[in-house]
Structures are given as C-alpha cells and as structure tokens.
Amino acid sequence: MNAIPLEHILFLSTALFFIGMYGLFTRRNMITLLMSVELMLNSVNINFVAFNKYLYPEALEGLFFTLFLIAIAAAEAAVAIAIIINLYRNYRSIDVEDAGEMKY
User: Fold this and answer.
1) Is the pTM of this model over 0.90?
2) Which residues pair with 95 in a beta bridge?
C-alpha cells in the first residue's frame, strides 16, 4: 500500500490554511469571507485526520474531533448565511466596507 507521507498532507493543510487566511484578509464580500473561514476549518480537519492516522492509528480521537468540527462549521455557516441574507435584505449590499456606512 502506497501511503502518502505525513509531510505532504501537512503541506497541503498549511497551503489551504494560508489560502483561506489570504482570502479572509483581502476580500470584501461577506460570502467570500465565509468561504475563506470554511477553508481554514477544513485545513484543520485535514490535520486532525492526518495526525490521528499517523500517530495513533488505533485511536479515534482525531476523527471524533473532525466530526465535531464539521458540525460546528455547518452551524457557523448556517448562522452566517442567515446574517448575510438579513443584511442584504436591509441594506442591498454584502460588502464589508459598506458596513461602516450602515445606520441601525
């Protein structure tokens, strides 16, 4: 069986995390910001699964943390999308820079 080395998986996870961080710091659209946060959370999931497979293959803690994090990410996405829809209905914009001009 050809196993993928841990270093390659960690490189992929690190690349995904920094791509998400770049998107979080450079984009102005709220939906793009949400996708960047989800990308960062998925890179953490890859780390949990990789370390569980390579360090403790008989234990399932990494997989349980990953399932818990997927549930948290789904709940976070649902709440964030509801907030974005509400902001768009009220202000007709989902641009982050327009948020400073919004009057409550």
Assistant:
1) no
2) 29
User: What's the average model confidence in pLDDT over 84-96?
Assistant: 81
Find all residues with CB under 8 Å of 20, minimum gap 6, and list them: 36, 37, 38, 39, 40, 43
- According to DSSP, the residues that pair with 29 across neighbouring strands are 95
* pLDDT tens-digit map of 17-60: 999 999 999 988 888 989 999 999 999 999 989 988 888 888 88
d(CA 23, CA 14): 14
- Burial bucket for residue 53 (CB in 10 Å: 0-12, 13-18, 19+): middle
The chain-wide mean pLDDT, for the chain, equals 87
CA dist., res. 94 & res. 96, Å (int): 6
Q: In 1-104, which ranges are continuous DSSP H helix?
A: 6-26, 30-55, 61-91
